[in-house]
């Protein structure tokens, strides 16, 4: 995977993205992610890889200070049209090289992004860099189960699925920076493949 290929893939996929990721088991899973997150209007909130804005539809965004970034202009256009009368700031930006100052955000939402970016370690480091000392990162994504190897069928499918712009073989533990602490790690769906992980920062 690389940025140019991903931009092409998500240009093609943007018209049908919501039909797949904003319905069924994905919608139910994402509702679980945000149900108990205490967003408030004193926080600066960053959505990394906001896509079409599907996650934003699940929260009361009207009174919140939200910045949402995505590398795909086509996905970002769909998101901004959905929320054109909101105060959300939409920016086209590479999650692996964010244009924000250190310690800028109280909460960072990373939904289905660490399995998509070409360099997940660099993306994770960037999120940690722009997170405030007492801030939290909320991750929802697919990872290889902890201390387990990728199964043979998934190993064979991995390069094919990567052509669709996502990686089914990444290990959360391998891509995590050292200066974080995992506060919650909850399996969400598909036999623990998808997890909700809440992360704090070690200063």
Q: Report the uncertain regions.
A: none
The helix content, as a percent range, equals: 25-40%
Strand order of the largest sheet: 3-2-1-4-5-7-6
Average pLDDT figure: 90
Judged by helices, strands and strand pairing, the structural class is: alpha/beta
Most strands sheet: 7 strands, mixed
- The total count of strands amounts to 7
Bin the strand percentage: 25-35%
The best one-word shape is: globular
Order of helices and strands: HHHEEHEEHEHHEE
Count of individual helical segments: 7
Gap from first CA to last CA? 32 Å
Radius of gyration: 16 Å
Polypeptide structure, described:
The protein is built from seven helices and seven strands. It is of the alpha/beta class. Strands 3-2-1-4-5-7-6 form a seven-stranded mixed sheet. The chain starts with a helix and ends with a strand.
Brief description of this entry?
The chain has 203 residues and is of the alpha/beta class. The chain has 7 helices and 7 strands; from the N terminus they run H-H-H-E-E-H-E-E-H-E-H-H-E-E.
Notable traits:
single chain, 203 residues, alpha/beta, seven-stranded mixed β-sheet, 7 strands
Secondary-structure topology with pairs:
Elements: H1 3-13, H2 17-21, H3 24-34, E1 44-48, E2 65-70, H4 73-82, E3 89-92, E4 105-111, H5 120-130, E5 131-142, H6 152-162, H7 172-175, E6 180-189, E7 194-201
Parallel strand pairs: 1-2, 1-4, 2-3, 4-5
Antiparallel strand pairs: 5-7, 6-7
């Amino acid at each position: 995977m690389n940025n140019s290929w991903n931009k092409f893939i998500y240009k093609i996929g943007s018209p049908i993205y919501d039909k797949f990721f904003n319905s069924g088991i994905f919608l139910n899973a994402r509702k679980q992610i945000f149900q108990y997150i205490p967003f408030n209007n004193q926080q600066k909130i960053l959505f990394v890889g906001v896509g079409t804005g599907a996650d934003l539809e699940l929260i009361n965004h009207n009174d919140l200070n939200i910045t949402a970034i995505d590398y795909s202009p086509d996905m970002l256009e769909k998101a901004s049209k959905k929320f054109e009368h909101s105060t959300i700031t939409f920016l086209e930006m590479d999650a692996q090289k964010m244009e924000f100052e250190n310690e800028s955000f109280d909460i960072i939402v990373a939904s289905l992004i660490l399995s998509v970016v070409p360099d997940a370690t660099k993306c994770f480091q960037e999120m940690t860099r722009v997170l405030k000392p007492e801030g939290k990162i909320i991750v929802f994504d697919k990872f290889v189960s902890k201390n387990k190897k990728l199964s043979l069928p998934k190993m064979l499918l991995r390069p094919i699925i990567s052509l669709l712009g996502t990686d089914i073989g990444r290990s959360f533990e391998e891509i995590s920076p050292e200066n974080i602490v995992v506060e919650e790690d909850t399996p969400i769906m598909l036999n623990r493949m998808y997890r909700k992980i809440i992360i704090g920062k070690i200063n």
